[in-house]
Task: structure prediction
Amino acid sequence: MPMDTTSNPLFAILASDLRDLRQVARVEKECFLEDAWPLIDVITMLVFPGIIRLKAQVGDQIAGFASAEVRSGIGWITTIGVIPAYRRRGIARALLAACEEHLSTARIRLCVRRSNRAAQLLYQQQDYRQVDAWPGYYRGGEDALVMEKSR
Result:
């Protein structure tokens, strides 16, 4: 599932699998700290059927990762993160677009920490709007904002 990267030759968006476990787990830890998925969840995400798994590859390093799936007819982007050293290069936007391209649903949702204004701005620029809030969703009790894009 390679993506066309002609618009940005600095990275490639590629399918990910269990061979990427070590680096994907590192992306989770560096991006989400206390909210990082446990290793067993990362393994499950990388092998469970029906899940879209995409990595942003820079040379031989995974700089970012995203996954998505369909639940009850709605596409959900379940995780998207870019290692801090690789941010502000269009990688998150490219991962988001690639997930959207692989989801055939009319609506796509994702969750974001209420305090993560940079991510919220990115999602708003891509036509996501807040449709709900889940109180205390994240560790430490912070709310999740549920954002949705209709197409």
